[in-house]
Amino acid sequence: MLEVLEPGVLTSIQDAGRPDWTHLGVPVGGACDAWSLAVANLLVGEDAGAAAVEMTLVGATFAVRAPITVGLAGADLGGIVQESGRSLPPGRTHRLEEGSTISFLGDTDPAAPSGARAYLALPGGIDVPPVLGSASTALGAGFGGIDGRRLRAGDVLRAALAGGLASDAVWPAFADDPLAAAGTDPLRLLAGPAAGLEAIIATEWTVGAASDRVGLRLEGPPLPATASGELLSRGVVRGAIQLPPGGAPIVLLAEHQTTGGYPIAAVVITADHPRLGQLRPGASVRFTVTTIDDARLALARQREALARGAATVRAGAAWDELWQSAGG
Amino acid sequence: MTEPTSTIAPLGDSALLVTFGDRIDPGLNERAHDLAAAVERLRAGDERFGRAVPAYASVLVPFDPIAVEPEEARRIVAGLVDEAPPGVETKGVGTLVEIPVRYGGANGPDLAEVAALHGLQPDDIVELHAGTEYRVYFLGFAPGFAYMGPLPAQIATPRLDAPRQRIPAGSVGIAGEQTGVYPFALPGGWRIIGRTDVSLWDLGRDSPSLLRAGDRVRFVPAP
């Protein structure tokens, strides 16, 4: 059991989202980096899409009210046990003792930040009532998670399974981790229905400060006037690069609206969505065009990597249990 | 074959956008909802496809690109488009929903300016807005927000140049030939002419949204 002492910049409960209510205007939502959500959950033996805590840039400080094992993944936001100074890096589980305080006060290496968002998973998921089939917090509409809002001091997070796990788990560092791609690798995209692709790939963009869970604002040279405008509203997708009239391009993230009227010049491939969710304000980003075949291959490899990682974690847990029972 | 009046184009690696036209038109909208309904019937036995998102004259159809090859997804969706050709009246009229509205004053801070822009009195705007039956074209922008129209041409008004940071729940707005009700407090750029106490979005209801695509709506002036 964890109690929030300080919530940080933007900490909320997120899961794989609610994809079945878009016809009523409900954003899919969920984790901005679904890969790291999955890793954090799989580390504690939970389903990849279960509810976990999403922390942004500067994370929360928690009081550990009962012993618990947590899974951490995503950006390294400087997780630390305050009493002992023990660091809490992502990509593994951590056993936390009752009475200790853990904090995520921001990246320990500001010169080479690892990303924007960290995920903290609890065994069995976080015990909050699902709304429209999901525990994710719809911050714009104000439902899901805890009362539809970001976490604040005094909130208590209960694991759906009490206590700790039998063993520690470490996420294997093999290839195809989407976040292992160097920060300077261009994000891959497919051409969209509207013009503007050439300008998007010719530019090194900066992620704007007004970026949020709805979208990343890209700052750079003004686009040709013909590239932007307004059309009849239609359904839009995560990763779409919209060109609002006279404005900077917007890359749609997890909590984007279901429909939109801006021209879409390109769409970032699904396999690169986790990296989109890890871009910090001020980060540089470039784009490159790929093919639908490569987009599918990258996504298939990513799913295989997740399955292999999950199997490795499970095998480790099984081995530990066998070892412990054999040792009596 | 797919009707020449529709196009099917990929939107990224995991969705197709089927477009029936580029204008606000009840017939085109009907085609969009027929296709969305066909996708839902398909989904009952085919998990490779995601929930369809209908809009004015288009439908977004998400799919899992590993489970189904994009070309096959396109063939399947094209088959659904062919099942419901244009010009076929597939449905009767939708449910009529009446929404009481207090026009003007603090409830409708833009009513006077809208009237002035059209050289009319505020009462004329109320009469025209409340004297028309609107069609719910689709829901988007926010949970429970229904895009309705067409507004009488005499009161069609562009959106505000600078959107407001917070529009109260129940605010009735107009933009272009559209009208809509903000289901909860939101930022927005529509011109606000009134407010209703009716709850457009309520998670305690079986269907949380008061309005559904295809419904007919009348605004009734309330004291």
Annotated CATH topology of the largest domain in chain B:
Cyclophilin
Instruction: Give the proportion of residues in helices of chain B.
Output: 10-25%
Q: Tell me, briefly, the overall form of chain B.
A: elongated
The tally of structural domains of chain B comes to 2
Greatest interface and its participating residue counts: A-B, 42 and 45 residues
Form type of chain A: globular
Largest sheet of chain A: 8 strands, mixed
What integer is the average pLDDT of chain A? 91
Question: Widest sheet of chain A: strand order?
Answer: 19-12-13-16-15-18-11-20
Oligomeric assembly: heterodimer
Enumerate the spans of chain A where pLDDT stays under 50 for 5 or more consecutive residues.
none
As residue ranges, the low-confidence spans of chain B are none
Summed over residues and divided by their number, the pLDDT of chain B gives a mean of: 93
> Looking across the biggest beta sheet of chain B, what order are the strands in?
7-6-13-5-12-9-10
DSSP helix fraction of chain A = 10-25%
Distance between the termini of chain A: 29 Å
Structural class of chain A: alpha+beta
Taking Cα atoms only, what radius of gyration of chain A do you get, to the nearest Å? 20 Å
Strand content of chain B: 25-35%
How do the strands and helices of this protein lay out in sequence?
The complex is a heterodimer of chains A (328) and B (223).
Chain A: E1 2-6, E2 12-14, H1 34-43, E3 52-56, E4 61-64, E5 68-74, E6 79-81, E7 92-96, E8 101-104, E9 117-121, E10 156-157, E11 187-191, H2 197-201, E12 205-207, E13 215-219, E14 234-235, E15 240-242, E16 250-252, E17 259-260, E18 264-268, H3 273-276, E19 284-285, E20 287-289, H4 292-326
Parallel strand pairs in A: 11-20
Antiparallel strand pairs in A: 1-4, 1-10, 2-3, 3-9, 4-8, 5-7, 5-9, 6-8, 11-18, 12-13, 12-19, 13-16, 14-17, 15-16, 15-18
Chain B: E1 7-10, E2 15-19, H1 26-43, E3 53-54, E4 58-62, H2 70-83, E5 96-103, H3 111-117, H4 122-130, E6 134-139, E7 146-149, E8 164-167, E9 171-175, E10 178-181, E11 186-188, E12 191-195, E13 216-221
Parallel strand pairs in B: 5-13
Antiparallel strand pairs in B: 1-2, 2-4, 3-4, 5-12, 6-7, 6-13, 8-11, 9-10, 9-12
